[in-house]
Amino acid sequence: AWSIDDHFRTAPFDSNLPVLLGLVSVWNATFLGCPALAILPYCQALQKLAPHIQQVSMESNGKGVSITGVPLDYEAGEIDFGEPGTNGQHSFYQLIHQ
Questions:
Q1: Which parts of the chain have pLDDT scores under 70?
Q2: Which superkingdom does the taxonomy of this entry point to (predicted)?
């Protein structure tokens, strides 16, 4: 955790992985119109990853108004969802793959 925090704090934006991933998320939701992100870990040990990302991302970014209360004319965040392995295999995995 320390090394990625240090990388985020010190790396220039053009090679800063957290910044680039955040910009890809904005690009997908705002410019490409892809409103959802599937988080599909293979390992059952990561079963709490998707709910954690949902809480952090959607609570922070899922606002429909600006900081001054003005309604936004664009999407400010995406819908994050997911389950590990077989938990989601027979539900939404089928929809995604077909």
A1: none
A2: Eukaryota
**Cα-to-chain-centroid distance, residue 3:** 21
- What is the percentage of the chain residues whose pLDDT exceeds 70? 99
Maximum pairwise Cα distance, the chain: 43
Q: How far is CA 53 from CA 10, 11, 68, 93, in A?
A: 24, 23, 26, 18
User: Which residues are within 8 A (CB) of 97 and not within 5 positions of it... i.e. 6 or more apart?
Assistant: none
CA distance 93 to 43: 15
Cα distances (angstroms) measured from residue 66 to each of 22, 54, 84: 18, 20, 34
Residue 22 vs residues 1, 7, 17, 28, 77: alpha-carbon distances, Å: 18, 15, 8, 10, 10
